[in-house]
Design goal:
Strand content: over 45%
Distance between the termini: 29 Å
CATH class of one domain: Mainly Beta
Strand order of the largest sheet: 1-2-3-4
Order of helices and strands: EEEEEEEEEEEEEEEEEEEEEEE
Helix content: under 10%
Shape: globular
Structural class: mainly beta
Length: 256
């Protein structure tokens, strides 16, 4: 799920029907219903998917470039052009992928998996290696700040890195999870001004101060597990979607 730069539309992915819906923020009216071409529909090595039975994991959307990507187990990351619904790129990976994410400009896609943290420039096809060491243990996830200057890596805590111009990472802080009940962060998003960070676990949303990592508020947002969260570009709202079948828009609680 992602909210457009002008705070007018919200992009959501339907993993049952393999469609991306673009809705108005105000009334959730559907402006576009984009059917994604299945990988097997173009033949070749993906004929195994012509029956339409494949599971797309870790979906991510770039509203800037109107690109959609997801991971298919044992094959790699696929990228769709949302203007056509056709497969635009396929990136064959080694190892298992835990998470993928576009940078704020939509020029680079990053992924974290069993063989480390990497990225690829979608224009030049150059590969960027951040962490080449093997990653073991609990599920890992990564997120970028909207300005592309920070990267947050979730393992048993929240590691905050700055991204240098030569694509090296510098660890600047480590924050504990806001409660002892959280053993992994399922979703995380940073506000445009880098002042707030919101994470979700199960049915709850937690809002933290990004500079200090201190919790500001928490609230139950859904009746079932939250699958995606997003800040509005102006930082005033958070959108959440859940397995309970609803999308909800929340005002940011005032910091006390």
């Amino acid at each position: 799920m992602a909210i457009s730069e002008k705070n007018e539309t919200i992009y959501t992915f339907d993993n049952v029907n393999d469609t991306v819906k673009v809705r108005r923020i105000g009334d959730f009216g559907v402006l576009e219903d984009i059917t994604l071409q299945l990988p097997g529909e173009r033949g070749g090595m993906y004929d195994v998917f012509t029956d339409g039975e494949f599971f797309l994991e870790n979906p991510t959307i770039s509203t800037t470039r109107r690109l959609f990507s997801g991971y298919i187990y044992d094959i790699g990351i696929f990228t769709w052009n949302l203007d056509t619904g056709f497969v635009n790129e396929d990136l064959h990976l080694t190892g298992y992928l835990w998470w993928a994410y576009y940078d704020p400009e939509g020029d680079t896609i990053f992924w974290i998996g069993s063989d480390g943290l990497h990225g690829i420039d979608l224009e030049t096809r150059d590969t960027i290696h951040f962490l080449d060491q093997k990653l073991d243990g609990v599920e890992k996830s990564l997120w970028f700040s909207p300005d592309g200057n920070y990267l947050v890596l979730s393992q048993k805590n929240l590691k905050i890195f700055t991204i240098n111009p030569n694509h090296t990472l510098e660890l600047v802080d480590i924050y504990p999870f806001p409660t002892e009940e959280i053993w992994r962060v399922e979703n995380l998003v940073i506000s445009t001004d880098n002042e707030l960070m919101a994470i979700s676990n199960d049915q709850f949303v937690y809002i933290l101060d990004f500079e200090s990592g201190q919790p500001i508020s928490e609230f139950p947002a859904h009746l079932d597990e939250i699958v995606s969260i997003a800040f509005s570009p102006d930082g005033r709202y958070i959108a959440t979607s859940s397995w309970d079948g609803t999308i909800r828009i929340w005002g940011i609680p005032a910091e006390e």
